[in-house]
């Protein structure tokens, strides 16, 4: 299977048509209230000028002159913020198969339903078939498909840890030794993946969880860190969380619903190591039918988010969309808001991921930054649910979604 994916990568590299970012038109957002960052004060009646994919000017109306050939979007009564990150998605649905040749309109339409209409300009795909996703990234970069910037993480599973929710016919990279983990991590990164995701715990249904040995996890982490790449992990229980800590994983891709809370020792080590958390709280409203069980799962995960945030940890927004088909982000915002302020939720979408993943020109609306912005119908600091009420999504100076 790895041989096939490597051939796909070689094909992409040798393609006669190089993937380039399509030239952006000049766009001006005028009249909205701007929050330049999650901790900034509101700037009413703002003007933002975007040229060639970058923010070229920011200021109050009357202070900024719009170029005569600009496309002006009236944002009166609306709120403007930096483009959103979703740090846990999957491009595994049927629509993404053969994405290199599938009709662009169909891909753009589903991208809108799943991501762009919710404001996402950058996403982390934490597991998909690269023979589909790498060509999809190329088509987005070339302007053929309207979508977000996609970062990819190659998956590694423990031996015998094929989760019950992944079809048995899907071949997975299972490893039994540190050497195998090292090889898979190197192969994934050589193929063009941007990071690694480890299943430090695999859910096996009514059978015991299969956990990854810390030495195996650390072998993959060492490869990724040597190349400056992040490592995510999916823990299923306390043992999986301990492996995350012992191996030096960067990001918990989920909270752990089977555990009521993190221990004081875990929290201390998270803080010392700079571990980040993607809570995916709304996911746990979909996994069981019994409402009493669902309430317990949600209470546990919300409590873990509370502990993690109060401990000073970096919180990153993510929904596991693509695995789940609940595209609407409203519930995730509401659950996060049980323990986080509106500004903290906004930070999880913008400044937090930009800082954590060292994207120096993202996460803020400032001159010289990437022209990734979201126009909202309402003020998210007045009602966190307004983060889901997107009027326009702009990535690299292109409008990739506009509300009808």
Automatic annotation (TrEMBL):
Any idea where the Amidohydrolase-related domain is? 79-399
InterPro entries in the record: Amidohydro-rel, Metal-dep_hydrolase_composite, Metal_Hydrolase, Metallo-dep_Hydrolase
Keywords carried by this UniProt record: Signal
| Keyword presence, Cytoplasm | no
Q: Does the keyword Heme apply?
A: no
Segment forming the signal sequence = 1-18
PANTHER family associated with the record: ALPHA-D-RIBOSE 1-METHYLPHOSPHONATE 5-TRIPHOSPHATE DIPHOSPHATASE (PTHR43135)
Tell me the protein's name.
Amidohydrolase family protein
């Amino acid at each position: 299977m790895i041989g096939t994916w490597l051939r796909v990568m070689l094909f992409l590299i040798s393609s006669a048509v190089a993937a380039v970012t399509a030239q952006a038109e000049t766009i001006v957002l005028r009249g909205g209230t701007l929050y330049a960052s999650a901790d900034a004060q509101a700037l009413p009646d703002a003007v933002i000028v975007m040229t060639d994919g970058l923010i070229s000017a920011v200021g109050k109306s009357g202070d900024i002159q719009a170029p005569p050939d600009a496309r002006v979007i009236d944002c009166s009564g609306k709120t403007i913020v930096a483009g959103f990150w979703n740090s846990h998605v999957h491009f595994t649905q049927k629509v993404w198969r053969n994405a290199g040749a599938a009709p662009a309109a169909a891909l753009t339409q589903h991208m809108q339903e799943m991501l762009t209409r919710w404001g996402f300009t950058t996403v982390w795909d934490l597991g998909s078939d690269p023979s589909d996703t790498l060509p999809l990234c190329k088509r987005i970069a070339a302007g053929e498909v309207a979508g977000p910037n996609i970062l990819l993480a190659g998956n590694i599973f423990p031996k015998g840890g094929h989760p019950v929710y992944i079809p048995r016919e899907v071949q997975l990279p299972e490893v039994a030794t540190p050497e195998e983990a090292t090889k898979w991590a190197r192969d994934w990164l050589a193929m063009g993946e941007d990071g690694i995701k480890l299943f430090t715990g695999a859910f096996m249904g009514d059978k015991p969880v299969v956990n990854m040995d810390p030495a195996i996890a650390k072998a993959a982490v060492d490869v990724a860190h040597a190349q400056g790449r992040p490592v995510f992990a999916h823990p299923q229980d306390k043992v999986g969380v301990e492996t995350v800590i012992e191996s030096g994983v960067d990001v918990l891709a989920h909270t752990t619903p089977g555990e009521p809370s993190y221990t004081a020792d875990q929290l201390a080590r998270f803080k010392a190591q700079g571990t980040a958390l993607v809570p995916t709280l709304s996911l746990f409203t979909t996994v069981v039918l019994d409402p009493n069980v669902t309430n317990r799962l949600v209470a546990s995960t919300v409590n873990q988010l509370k502990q993690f945030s109060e401990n000073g940890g970096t919180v990153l927004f993510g929904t596991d969309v693509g695995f789940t088909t609940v595209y609407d982000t409203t519930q995730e915002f509401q659950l996060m808001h049980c323990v986080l302020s509106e500004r903290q939720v906004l930070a999880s979408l913008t400044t937090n991921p930009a800082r954590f993943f060292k994207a120096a020109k993202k996460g803020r609306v400032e001159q010289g930054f990437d022209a990734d912005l979201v126009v909202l119908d309402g003020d998210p600091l007045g009602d966190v649910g307004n983060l889901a009420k997107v009027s326009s999504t702009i990535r690299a100076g292109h409008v990739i979604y506009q509300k009808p």
